[in-house]
Write a structure and sequence with these properties.
Blueprint lengths: L2 H4 L4 E6 L3 H12 L4 E7 L2 H11 L3 E5 L7 H11 L5 E6 L3 H4 L8 E4 L4 H16 L5 H15 L4 E6 L2 E6 L3 E7 L2 E6 L3 E4 L4 H5 L7 E5 L2 E4 L3 E6 L5 E5 L6 E3 L2 H11 L2
Helix pairs in contact: 3-4, 4-7
Length: 264
């Protein structure tokens, strides 16, 4: 171990997230915890790589989805580069249902918005790994491969219409909505009911870089958004590219993300 690890058991941590508010919130939570040194905050994957190689942090809190080079791309490049590999905690905005398969001892995840106690538990886990001199490479590579395979998502969706079952390409899905426990799928060619029971279950089987939970009752294909419409009290609606040009509300929690993504 280097002197940095033995002196005061201080964890040096790099935060990488393209959303400013998410970065600031993580840094705020970290500053309230003992024996933490924030070595930097990256706004994208390429900057994260540069700062990791420059500062060699013990741990990276790494957002899964970032423009250009995402969190998985960062991990792959670090593994291929052959340099010192930090421990990694993935940070994701997706529901726990979608990430249960990746909860392993050597690599953790945090669900946005990050809970202070959950963060503390994750950091304690990393400290134990460092004390045991457990190399992060093997497990990180395995989990990254699993996540990448899952990120591809399901390519076909089953849609029921008038007692007939149709297969729809996932990329043709415009949006999905749930009402009274029934999920309706609206695609570019057909509208009908899904065999999934919850929006969470449907979302977990789709590409997370394409399908966005903009409201508790709506899941949209970001490639099928036709227009962003300003709405009441600084909120927005999304006008979709379906036959009816359906307008879908963006929840207050997701409005912040919309502004970040589109620089509104």
């Amino acid at each position: 171990m280097t002197e940095k690890h033995t002196a005061a058991a201080t964890l040096s941590i790099l935060v990488a997230d393209d959303e400013r508010l998410a970065r600031e919130e993580l840094c705020y939570l970290l500053r309230e915890l003992p024996d933490i040194e924030i070595s930097g905050a990256a706004t994208n994957g390429l900057e994260a790589l540069e700062l990791i190689r420059q500062h060699e942090p013990d741990l990276v809190l790494l957002d899964v989805q970032m423009p250009g080079l995402d969190g998985l791309g960062v991990v792959r490049q670090l593994l291929e580069g052959g340099g010192r590999m930090p421990h990694v905690i993935f940070v994701t905005a997706y529901d726990q249902y979608a990430v249960q398969a990746f909860e392993v001892n050597a690599v953790d995840y945090l669900l946005k918005p990050v809970d202070r106690s959950r963060l503390s538990i994750s950091l304690d886990r990393v400290r134990r790994l460092i004390e045991a001199r457990t190399p992060p490479e093997t497990k990180i590579a395995k989990v990254a491969a699993q996540w990448q395979a899952r990120a591809g998502g399901r390519t076909k969706l089953l849609v029921k219409q008038a007692n007939r079952l149709f297969l729809v390409d996932a990329e043709d899905l415009v949006y999905a909505t749930i009402e009274d426990g029934l999920i309706t799928i609206v695609s570019t060619i057909i509208e009908g009911q899904s065999n999934y029971r919850t929006i969470e279950e449907l979302q977990s089987n789709l590409d997370p870089s394409t399908f966005w939970r903009v409201h508790r009752s709506y899941l949209v294909n970001i490639n099928k958004i036709k227009e962003v419409v300003p709405w009441f009290k600084s909120s927005y609606q999304l006008r979709m590219d379906d036959k009816k040009h359906t307008e879908i509300p963006v929840s207050r929690a997701q409005t912040r993300r919309l502004r970040e993504l589109l620089k509104l």
